[in-house]
Amino acid sequence: MSDGTLRYLLLLAALLTRRAPGLMVLNEPETSLHPQLLKPLARLIGDAAQRCQIIVVTHAGPLVEALAEAGSLRHELTKTLGETTVDGLARASWEWPSR
Fold it and tell me: The domain that contains 58 carries what CATH number?
């Protein structure tokens, strides 16, 4: 089997498990997958998100679009001068206690 086929089968097993974890993080799940599998993968992620919290990290525009169509929330990260921020969220203010 190809890398993409094996990866897709492993993603199916993780997303269709009967005992879903509280949190599942998928880092670039589109790697090695055929582009036609991105929409079905997004639907599977959307269905699995009904049972557990899922975070998907991706650079693939087609997967982002397919996840949006499946009703997923989107948070885009931006890196400026070495600092990574989440677009649309206020920057956390830190108050350090005095000694």
Answer: 3.40.50.300
Q: Tell me the per-residue pLDDT of 55-71, one tens digit each, with 9 for 90 and over.
A: 999 999 999 999 999 88
Assess if residue 17 is contained within a domain.
yes
Place 94 in a pLDDT band, splitting at 50, 70 and 90: confident
Residue ranges making up the domain that contains 20: 3-86
> Do 63 and 41 touch, CB atoms closer than 8 A?
yes
Question: pTM to 2 decimals?
Answer: 0.80
**Residue 69 belongs to some domain of the structure:** yes
